[in-house]
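Researcher: Before we compare anything, I want clean individual predictions. No alignment, no superposition, just each chain on its own. First chain goes here; please echo the sequence and then give the structure tokens.
Model: Echoing the first chain and its structure:
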Amino acid sequence: MSYEQRKDLIYTGRTLFGAPCPKGQELEDHYFGTIKSRVQEFMSDLNQELWKLGILAKTEHNEVAPAQHELAPIFTTTNIATDHNQLTMELIQRVAKKHGLVALLHEKPFEGINGSGKHNNFSLSTDTGINLLEPGDTPHENAQFLVFLAAIIKAVDEHQDLLRLSVATAGNDHRLGANEAPPAIISIFLGDELTAVLKAIEEDKPYDGKEKELMKIGATVLPKFPKDSTDRNRTSPFAFTGNKFEFRMPGSNASIAGCNIVLNTVIADEIEKFANILEAADDFDTTLHALIKDTIKNHKRIIFNGNGYDDSWIKEAESRGLLNLKTTPDALPYFKTEENIELFERQKVLSKEEVQSRYEILMDEYEKQINIEALTMLDIAKKDILPAASKFSKELTDTITNKKAIGIDLTYELETAKKVSEYLTEAYQALITLEKDVEKLHSIDDFEKSAFYVRDFIIQDMAALRKPCDELEVVTSNEDWPFPTYGKLLFGIL
């Protein structure tokens, strides 16, 4: 099996080396094509195993990248969904082995093609099953929908840091902002129609819809729009999709418990504040209207319906004062800020000690994961790639000597040998640098300093080592290359 020949996949769950193969995902033929029979058999077997545990799943299909597939569990309550999600990941890997396959749950297993994530669908319902994020048709339902929508907008804006760190991992850092997943900048997508409604409320102006009338909460009907008409922006980290939100930042390997703890906590805190204001109001309708209007005015910066992949959004987000926490060590320190600790304690979710322990564990996990990857790269480069390329170089020089003796043209051999020699030298120098910096890393006994050292040095060293090694793969013969290439891994399932 190809997997067993890739130490990087075995030890880290992702490929640390690998040149692009001639065909990637550019034709989108995998996404729109039929599921291969071998994978279909795996999916059918997986369904049976999931159903035995009461886990209902559907919408299995190909995804954009070759050998990438999607599964959608059916919506349920948070605690149950979290358990189901963990069991689903375990069963995916277990059933795959029965079919001679390996399921990679890493967020970015292959460089240059799409990684994998989770869409965490989030809504609020009463104990009688009423969806509080359903826009509705009546004035009362409009007011109800808009007050909860406003609370969520405020919560997401005020707690961008917590939402970002709730999905922060070494693996997910490769995916967020890589033109295949939402950027590391938190924003809310509402769609043009709902955004226009909120703007009309904010400005006390007529809504420019079917009927022009002053947007006064409790006295007008929110225009009805089809479910999912707003779900057109795949670049948004937090998108309204008709009667729920979709948090699209969690990585494929993550537990959904972390992000849902944060979502429930920050939204509950804002709803409690809203409730305190409304319960003390002398004129409920006037107070409600002012509350929603002021909330929209003060927190509209978080609403963005444009292309999150565009470089201009980074500049615009900065001008709006939004956070851009690109890496896990950038995000995690916000966990232990005084205001966030007070929030978790106020809502009786986590104590100060529990927040601190989670911070330490997550920072330590980040450092350890990258350390394992760095050691694996050193092992593969030393024992596999450099010896294989050196062997190929010797074959070239032997051929050059033999051909030269009889006067045959040596253009291919000479130019290729020169390239191999240059890449070997560059790779060896990068290897030495990484090796020295890993030694320095191991001498640091503070978990915070270790995590930041990894971010600032080890990751750059790893990229510097990978580049010449991937170039060596391109010029070295298949016969001499020591492990399966991307082409074999991505297109080897028949």
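Researcher: Okay. Second chain, same rules.
Model: Second chain and its structure:
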Amino acid sequence: MNSLALKVMVAYCVGVALTIATLMLALDAVTTLRGPIFVDEDIAEFAEELGEKLVFDATGQPTGFDAEGRRREWMFAKLEGDLAYRLLDASGQVVLASPTDAAFWTAVGPAARRLKPGHFVFEYGGQAMRGATEAVPHQGRTWYLQLAGSERLFGLFHLDFALPFMGIGMGIFGSVLLLVFGLCAYLMLRRVLRPLHEVSASAAAISPRRVHARLQVDRVPTEIVPLVDSFNRALERLERGYRVQQEFLATAAHELKTPLALIRAQVEFMATGKGPDLLLQDVEHMTRQVQQLLLLAEASETQNYVFTPTDMGEAAREAVAYLTRMALAREVTLEITASRDRAGRAAPHAPTAAASPGDTGDAKAMVHPDAGAEAGLAVTWDADRGALFTLLKNLLENAIQHAPAGSCVTVEVGESRIAVRDRGPGVSPHQLSRMFGRFWRGAHRRDHGAGLGLAICQEIAEAHGWTLSAEPEDPGLRMVVTRVAPGLR
């Protein structure tokens, strides 16, 4: 009973049956309620037809009816008490008449005797009679054909002949309609549902080794296309998650082999005296790689994100404060300014949080007294706070690694973008497209990172619906995070 084809066929059959029944009931009701009107119309049509079949001689006098008219004269002979006609001239003289009792036309009312086209009613032999007068013009003269019949006769025609035959005709028509169109509907349903069976078979064949496969929508009915498209999008998300996990496993296995081999070698040469220091360096490097691999795997899964309104200026200050010690160790200054997307021009160079090479002790981020909403820092984006911190931290860390000693790394905060600029050697144009790939490392980087920092930033930006790009500067490089649709995120 859950079959779509069966439900459509049942609905079709019920619809045909209800249509036929409704038509029959409507016809019966109209016939019952408007019986006299139908009788008058039938008599008028019959009189008009007889008038068209009159035959005239050379002098213009009517002599009778043509062959078709004469074939109907038997009715007037057999039903002379219930059906009669007569033809009168303009003076009221009878020219032609059907065989009937003289009292038949004597009972006609004054409306018929006025020889005016129209209907008239009278009573004859205890039966209600209805008649009609039709004008028949010929060669400048007008003749009047009057036809009268009993209501019982025309009621017999309607109720005992017309309605039963019409019912039989409608029944035959409905049966043919049900069979022919039902067969056509069945064949069409089979043809329409065949692509769904093919799509179902294709979906059943998809496995973890074939997650790249997609369901075809070329032959699928238009109403089912949104469902197939949704399924394909779900497959795309599944493939992406599966690919991310596979790449993570492969990357982790590849990247951990070398540090583990080095650790093993260093342990074997502990007796040389330099072993412990080198071992600690290798362990630190491996720890960093493992941490970045875990961050990359986490950033690749959008369900891990919780979006809340986030103050971008505060997030920038938090990242700057976190990396202050690293910047001091490399003699690099960190500062936060307003982005040039405010009012169409760059804001004054007013740092809001900075680490100076001359600072000593526990350096802390400080807010410049002129900074605030006027400087372009009072900006709110919808973001995952932890992921945003990781994004800014990685961009700042990457800039610090490439910035020369004594230079400044700037965080620019704006309404629709936030940027991190260093004043280092920059990147050649042909390498710009490779920067966000996994394990890419700049030629001037001072540490031994795994090359996953920018890849992590790219994953975080895509999860937020942002874009991450690199803009060459002279000197240095600007990494820009752009909020494509500020009204959304």
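Researcher: What stands out in the second chain?
Model: The radius of gyration is 50 Å. Additionally, DSSP finds 13 helices and 14 strands in the chain.
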